[in-house]
Every structure is written in structure tokens, then in C-alpha cells.
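Internal ticket - ligand job 299, dinuclear copper ion:
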Amino acid sequence: MQIRTAITAALATTALVGTGLLVGSQVSLLPVAASTNAPPYDSLFRVLFSIGTILFLGILIVLAYSLIRFRRRPGELAEGLPIEGNLPLEIVWTAIPAVVILFVGIYSYDIYDRMGGMASLDHGAMQHQAMDHGSMNPTQMDPTQLADGIEASAERIWGGIGSTQAYVDQTGDGSEASAAVPPLPVEVTAMQFAFIFHYPDNDITSGELHVPLGQPVQLRMQARDVIHAFWVPEFRLKQDVIPGQPTVLSLTATRAGTYPVICAELCGPYHGGMRTSVVVHEPDDYLAWVTQNTPATTA
Ligand code: CUA
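stdout (C-alpha cells):
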């Protein structure tokens, strides 16, 4: 009887875990993947979805089984058996969630780090300091001065825009081909209720973000008024844009197309309308866009 119970439990657990992994690996709730951040993010999502499925089905099955198996039969009037305390059971149901949560926490941290989450946090803090040294208030200062400030601190941190090591560290994809391409700098200004993109290399200002396929892009972000958040679901990227604290976000687009840029932080009455697009061009198309939009005076 003991052995039969053990075998049944083992089979049920295997079936449950198998189902969870199957559902997790087949899930397709996310939008198309369009940046180098997407693969690690999506694998984390699949793992979380597998764990969620296992817990959901496991709890639901045990609940349904108990409801049927231990229901009150006709003629049964007595109270149920008074059971109090079960140490092995309590150890098991404390240990399993502890292990699961520890695993999810460490794995999530690793993915966040590989996506450059920890790197941009450091850079943001350092740039904040650099801004403070210049005693600059981004809401009042001359925008070119602000851009210079950001550039100067970026150079201090990375030893120049061409620094490939910084790019590798930030995205962690470690591919040498992309590391050889210097990142394209784009200044992003978030304000109530729009994102403005400025390309310092060509002095282009645009309400839409245009990026070339396969080239690392370095978004230098600042907010004019309140906290906004730059979110591109297809890139699996979301970054708060905070007044007085410029942040840097690196990304490499891997799929041509047009994707939404959404403000993901409640920033005022028209927060819901604060959205634009990012257009990922084939390299040639991107050059054509740059040529078309470069102001005549600098062309
Ligand atoms: Cu900007 Cu919401």
C-alpha cells in the first residue's frame, strides 16, 4: 500500500512537471522578439510560466480531489477528524517554495544582469553625480549643455563612444561581430506627453525612433518634467526616465519592422496617449532615412 501510494505520487508529480514544462515551452503570449534582449527574457518568461502552470494545476487538482474524495456523504453527521500539526508536511511545504523562490530570484537576477540592468544602474548613478558636479538643473538648462554633460560623463565612464567593451558588458551577448560596431547615440527626451529623439551625429530631431538593424544603439535618456518610462515590448525593454537623472539604455535590434514605444509610467492626464513608434530599418534604409532627414545646414 505504501509502495503503491509512493509510485502514484511519483507518477502524478512527473506528469504534473512534464505538463508544466510542455505548457511553458509552448506558450506564445509575448509579442515578436526584436532585440538581443529578447531571447534571455523569453527563456525566463518560459521558466516562470512553467513554474506557474505546475503550481496552478497542482493546487487545483489537489483541491478538486479533496472536494470530491472527502465530501460529506448522506447520513454523515459527525465532525471531521481533528488533525493538528504535521511536522514533515510543514517542512516540505516550506522547503519547496523556498527552493523555487530562491531559484527564480537568482535566475531573474542573472537575466537582468545579462540584459545590462545592473550596468545602466551604475552608469545612471555616476552620471547623476557628474551632473551634480556641473550644478546643472535639467529642467532649466540649455539643452545643448545638457547633451554635452551627458556626453562628457559617458566618455568618462566608457572612455569614448567607440568603447566596445562597455557595449559587450551591457548587453552580455558577447558576440564579437556586434561588439565591433560602435553604438549609435540617440538622445531621448521624455516630456508631458511625448518622446523626442535627437541624433547628435547628424543633428536630426524626430518624434519617432529610427534605428538600424543589428547595430547597437545607445539611448541617453532624460525627462523634462515628471517620471516617464520608455517601453518597447518587442525589445523586452522598459526603463524609467527620471528628471535630473539621465540614464543610458543600450539595445540592438534584431528584426526589421515598426514597433510601439509606450510610456509605461502614469505621468499625467494624457499618459495613455504618450506613445510613438520605433522603426527598425535595414542598414541601407537607415542611411537613406538619415540622408533624408539631416538638416540642410549640416549636410
Ligand atoms: Cu509619460 Cu506616461
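Auto-summary: The first strand starts at residue 184 and ends at 191. Strands lie at 184-191, 194-199, 204-206, 209-212, 216-223, 228-232, 237-241, 247-252, 257-263, 275-281.
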